[in-house]
Design brief:
Elements (H helix, E strand, L loop, with lengths): L1 H16 L3 H16 L4 E5 L4 H6 L10 E4 L10 H7 L6 H5 L9 E5 L6 H13 L2 E6 L1 H4 L12 H4 L2 E4 L7 E5 L2 E7 L1 H22 L15 H12 L7
Parallel strand pairs: 1-2, 1-3, 3-4, 4-5
Antiparallel strand pairs: 6-7
Helix pairs in contact: 1-9, 2-9
GO biological process, one term: carbohydrate derivative metabolic process
InterPro entries: RpiR-like_SIS, SIS_dom, SIS_dom_sf, SIS_GmhA/DiaA_subfam
GO molecular function: carbohydrate derivative binding; isomerase activity
Length: 243
C-alpha cells in the first residue's frame, strides 16, 4: 500500500543522508563559528523550500540567532503561481540581502531542491560577495537533470562552499502507480528539514565543545517559555528582521 511504501521510501532516503555527515559537519562548523562571533546564520529558500528556512527560525528548541529571509515574493501565498514566476527573476534577491543585518562573519544557508532558479543563485552569489560562507541544500540528482535558469549558467551547487545533497528524486515526487500518469508524494521537505535540524544540533554541540552556550528558544507553550524567550528577543530583535 502506498502510504506504507512512502514511509519506507523516506526511511531509505534518510539512511542515504548519513553519507552527507561530512558536509553537515562542515556546515555546522561554519554556523557555530558565526554564532560564537556574535553574528548570524541566514537561511533562505523559495516556494516549498522556504519551509526549510522556517523550520529553524523562532523555533522551540531552535537556535536564536537564525535569520530566516522570508521574502513574500517567494512564498506560496497569497498566489502560489507568482512564487514560481518570481524565483526565476534575476537580480532581485541579491538586493534584498542588503536590507538585512549582514556581515562577512555570517553564514548563509540556501535551500533549493532543483538548484536551478535565479533567485536562490543570486542570493548565494551575493552572500559570497559579502564574504559569507555559503551552504547549499539541494538534490544533486535533480540538479544534474536540469539546466540553470541563471545567466551565469551555474546551478546552486556550483556556487556554494558546502553542498549537502538531500537525496530526493528528480521532480521530487517519489511514488508511482499503475494508471496514474504522474509521480506523486514529494519527499524534499521531510529530508531537508531533517538535515537542517541535524545541522543545528551539531552546531550547538560544537559550541558547547568550545565552552560557549548557544542561545536556544524554549517552546512558548511551556510555563517558563515566554519569560525566557522575551530575553532572547530583546537581545536579538534589532538583528533579526522577522522577530
Amino acid at each position: 500500500m502506498k502510504h506504507l511504501e512512502y514511509f519506507h521510501k523516506i526511511e531509505e532516503q534518510l539512511k542515504e543522508q548519513i553519507k552527507e555527515e561530512g558536509n553537515i559537519e562542515k556546515a555546522a562548523q561554519y554556523c557555530a563559528e558565526s554564532i560564537r562571533a556574535g553574528r548570524l546564520v541566514h537561511v533562505f529558500g523559495s516556494g516549498h523550500s522556504q519551509m526549510m528556512a522556517m523550520e529553524v527560525f523562532y523555533r522551540a528548541g531552535g537556535i536564536v540567532p537564525i535569520n530566516a529571509l522570508l521574502l513574500p515574493q517567494y512564498a506560496l501565498f497569497p498566489h502560489a503561481e507568482l512564487s514560481t514566476h518570481q524565483e526565476r527573476v534575476e537580480n532581485f534577491s541579491n538586493h534584498y540581502l542588503h536590507m538585512e543585518d549582514v556581515d562577512e562573519r555570517d553564514t548563509m544557508i540556501v535551500a533549493s531542491v532543483s538548484g536551478r532558479n535565479a533567485g536562490v543563485i543570486d542570493m548565494a552569489l551575493e552572500a559570497k560577495k559579502v564574504g559569507m560562507r555559503v551552504v547549499a541544500l539541494t538534490s544533486l540528482s535533480f540538479s544534474k537533470s536540469v539546466t540553470s535558469r541563471h545567466s551565469s549558467g551555474k546551478l546552486l551547487k556550483d556556487v556554494a562552499d558546502v553542498v549537502i545533497d538531500i537525496k530526493c528524486d528528480p521532480g521530487d515526487a517519489a511514488m508511482s502507480l499503475e494508471g496514474v500518469n504522474t509521480k506523486f508524494a514529494a519527499t524534499s521537505n521531510v529530508l531537508g528539514v531533517t538535515v537542517m535540524e541535524s545541522m543545528m544540533a551539531r552546531t550547538i554541540e560544537i559550541n558547547q565543545e568550545h565552552d560557549f552556550d548557544t542561545p536556544i528558544f524554549l517552546s512558548s507553550n511551556l510555563n517558563e517559555g515566554d519569560e525566557t524567550n522575551s530575553k532572547h528577543i530583546k537581545k536579538y530583535r534589532a538583528m533579526l528582521s522577522n522577530l
